[in-house]
Amino acid sequence: MKRFLLATSLMAASLSASAVAPGGDSCGWGNMFFDGQSGLPSHVIASITNGTSGNATFGMTSGTNGCSANGTLTYGGKSMIDMSSIMTEFSEDVARGHGDALTTVAVALNVEAEDRQVFDAVMHENFAVIFPSENVTAEDAMMSVLKVMKSDARLSKYAA
Amino acid sequence: MHRIFLLLSLLLLGGLSGFNVLADTGVASQPHYVELVKQKAATLRLSEEDTWRRLLHFRRDYFSATGVSSYVDDETYFYSDDGFFDAESELQATIDALFIEDGLDNQHAQCRFVYRFKWLTSQLKLDAAKMPAASCTDYAEWRAQVNAHSVSLIFPATALNSPSSMFGHTLLRFDPKDIEGGSDWLSYALNFGANINNDDNSVSFAFRGLAGGYPGVYNMMRYFEKIKEYNRMENRDIWEYKLNYTPEEVDLILTHVWELKDINFDYYFFDENCAFRLLELLELVRPEVNLTERFKLDAIPTNTVRAVVEEGLVESTYFRPSELAELHARINSLPKSIQRLGKELSNDIGMMDTPEFSTLSQEQKGEVVQIAYSYLRYEQLQIPRNEAMAKRSYQLLLALNKLSSKKVVVDRPDAPETGHKTITAGVSLGERNDDVFQQVNYRVTYHDLLDNEKGYLRGAQIILFNTEVRHYNDGGLKFNRFDVVDITSLSKRNMFLKPLSWKVQFGYERVYSRDEEVGVFQLNGGAGHSYELSDSVELFGILTGRIEHNKQFNSIIEPAIGVEAGLLYYSPIGTQKIDLSGSQFLNDDYRMRAEFAQNFNLGVDHALRLSLAQEWHNDDDFYDISLGYRYYF
User: Fold this and answer.
1) What tens digit of pLDDT does each residue of B465-479 get?
2) Burial status of residue B307 (CB atoms within 10 A of its CB: 0-12, 13-18, 19 or more)
3) Same domain? B459 vs B545
4) A41 touches chain B (CB under 8 A)
């Protein structure tokens, strides 16, 4: 997560009211698309020892640096898995209409196997709705995904 | 003392048919039951069991009073003050802790040490009714989340130009049931690595990483974080080995993983590293499997993968190519003239309006747009977010949304464990300057440019501790060379990618200098370019620098600059290399060398190597030829 540190000022402006500072200041759903490398020297260090720098999570709800491992975005009253770090991959898959990130989001939203093709197709058709510009945040995009699902007969039950 | 205690407890039990009977009489108040349990544990010598020792991560240790000590470097892992080296004392203290009546929440021994509790319960037939009942909500929540049915060993392989990935890495992935119908991106990955302080500079790091100054900890995250880290950020292919562990065994592994949450181990780069720690977990629940025994001195991830395969633990293998490999495959699927359009489009979105682009078929347009997008993403790796690039990326996605692109297929290379083994020893016969010699050589690890490329990354040479000793018929026994480190990384440049190739070497070697063979200490390195001329031929050129300590020279350290150029041909019988190099020293001495070398692969773990070299040093010139046999083990 350390590599996705982004300008916090940019993200703060676009947070919607439905989520409470998801993931903390420097990580999580506020991420913008088409992110780059933060260039921390600790990246090299971390990769030699296969380590992490100060963000040892354990699959639990919260990591040690205040970065939420599970996000505080909710839908249907349940907290959502933090997929913010793969939102750029997701955008590419939505554009094409296929890919692992697209499947991942479908599974995370509990979309049943028989509805996945519909999910892929509906996402694909609504690319420009979900991603209206390059400055959309991961959270905005996720909210749009749910909105698009709600207005689809087959998918609405997953976004209740 | 101990023996008397044992005797007493045996006597006490003599007339009873079993512990549970005694317990059930109700005579025993709670402290009494604890004592009985502890006595039974001592009688059964439970602390000598393999499982208990593995749970405590014990190893042989000649400096320890008990002859063993734990790899764990964290006092919170032990209830007994002597738990670090005394298995019995820790067992007794653990039993005490399991019976503590206060603080029956997540910090209770029953919640923190779930495997210990489970194991002791079954070994000692503990009666739950006579024990305090702790409420382990954290553990329950965690297990609900890490809902695992099977486990895979994950091996992100080496990548060129990423020295930090030198030997690869291993981690475990826990998959839920029916992962084929779900998404393995959402599975949990268990990683063991150093916990690094961000403020450290890299010199301090290098030292501490190797010498063991960082605590190693386990952490878990969604597997997509790892895919992102390796497949994308580091351009490393990932090999995934699904293990044939049953759901029950997987459950047990996780039970112990929980015990290791936030527990510090010392992290050493070479031996007590990621790979070693994972082997311990795999052994714990399969007592008949002996993995860690194989790795006394070093645990190179490739070798641990090989060990796991050899022990018959692997059910199936899956290859997950890096994003860069996918980009390469996409580019290569198009004719050269069209490839160029992808590059241009990544720089200028207006390209889509040119006739060149509009005459392409719909499918080709999709591929070109996809290549342009993927290439921008690749470029984005090195730099922070950039408005112009983000805008172009977005516009490309809009275009891709109307065109779509195919799912790319990357040819699966030979799996890393099918390659040659990592220690090399050899004997050879040769002649240098009219003097016949016999040579033995030994390399601790890992792969040179000429070794059989099967299972290894082309163009990546990593040598540590390479020794050559020669016996000359006229000149006697000579220590010919000792390379501490000798790394070469040849990343090919093409229309899209412009990586640097580089090399660095440090060690002792015998050279001909001013009419005499002398031993010198030297450090050399360089950077340059390499290109692929065809599928099996590569060309490289490097500018080099060298410093040398040579008693023939007046100065303590003499610098030199030079060039090296070479051609590598990956022929069906083995790799061939032609290499020309020259160095000019500041003191006007010079050296040049031309070499033709050919490796003849004899299966995977045997090879013959021929080397024909000619050298020029100031006014002298002579040859050095040899033919040798190499064995990899």
Assistant:
1) 999 999 999 989 999
2) buried
3) yes
4) yes
